[in-house]
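Section 5.1 Outputs to date
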Amino acid sequence: MYTLIIVDDEEAVRESIRGKMNWETHGFELIGSYGDGREAWDSLEFRVPDVIITDISMPHMDGLALAAAVADRYRDVTVIIMTGFGEFEYAKQAVKLKVYDYVMKPVSHQEFTGILHHLKKELDDKRLRNEDVSRLQSQLNMSLPLLREQFLERMVSSEVKKDEIQNKFAMFHLSLSGPYYVALTLDVEEFLYHFEAKISSETELLRFAVYNIVHEIFELEQGGIVFRTRDEKIGIIFAGELPSLSLSVQKYAEQAASSIEKYVKVRVSFGIGRPYPRMEELSKSYSEAVSALDYRFLVGKNKIISIEDIVHGKDQLQVHHAEWERKLIAALKTGNKEQFAKLLGDWINELRASQSSVDRCYIYVQRFLVSIIQLFEDSGHDAMEAADILGQVRAYKTLDEVKVWLESLCMQLFEQVILKMAQDVDSLLSRSEEYILENYQDENLSLGDVAQHVYMSMNYFSGLFKQKKGQSFIEYVTQIRLAKARELLSETNLKAYEIALKVGYGDPQYFSVIFKRHHGMTPKEFRAVSREGISLE
């Protein structure tokens, strides 16, 4: 329902208009009727209608003056002019005053109804447009914090022109006085509270608490700008004079880190870029801050790392990667866990001391992983997917984390290698036993022959054979030969010297000596006893 007043110095005209119309049917409520423009104007102090229908010729303030005053002060009020035939020229001036329409007196009911119908439709459309604008404005206001963070993240991650920065700073009520500008980034390292379950709402609450402390120190107290990024880091841009700017941000970062650990029980690291003289160069400073933060890989977590400190301490040592790789793989192949752990620790320490770039350190580790993968595949297992293993290393933020991961990975490899070695040993021993059974009749059968048959060194085979069988190679071969000799003595009429030749003894006398040493009797005595059915147990 829209409100409406009528202004005319003739009471009869006012009463005629009032009486002719059923206002509510057409969506209007008549809230006033006035005899001149001044009276109507004064009434607007108490209630402003949506529509004013006014005559032109009136004492004190005519209709055109009223329309002009309304247009100047009440831009949303719609004015309709009523005019007589002789006042038509005045009516044309009303168009310049943004008057909605004018009607010639006397006004017919049909004409007035048509005007109200069209007016209501236009007022409805206008209201909908205004409501949409209000809704959009409300949505914009609600979205401003998010839009602010999106703009700030874009400003520090890409080149943004000075004009856009100024416009957006005005829109978001931001300011940085200069004359130099520097960017920082913060990353949460670890939560000192030990949750029974990792609940995202709890971690998000702690991250919000971290943001509040950083916001209070850097923005509210020191006039910087703080924002959150899509990768759950916190960005900071700061301004000041040289050379104190770098020292200031270092000090405030230390204060923030200390307060965060004390009150929120969370540890964080900061990366700090270089100061630049133009705000458009903040993207360079922020990129350096991110690079500085990446150096946690070398120096460890819970640090405040400036890109300038990294550059000054760079390239102190050269890592001899190929030599380290050879030693580490050798330790893996031999299954020496203690030696491998020590070598790995020494290698990691040398990488850290070298101050190599983070990317180069990753490359070193990935090259070592390729060797591990090759060794693993050579052991006959396909459980490791090369792409997965090589990609995983980038998930670790420090060399210490990489060391722990590599130790765990290589312990799995140790188990696989040991299992494979055990399987290989069993296979080799079975093959060596088969060879001995096939060749024990050869009096020249030697340890070297069997070792060569199974592709092992004689010394290694000798030690392995005794470890697994509990007896030396000679003892085992003698056992096989004497067992066959006992069988032949019991079941055949072959002479003792013939049997000696069949079981690998070219010297019958030596055969008799060996036989008696093991059985307490000569071959002849053994045959006699065995044929009489006397137990030899």
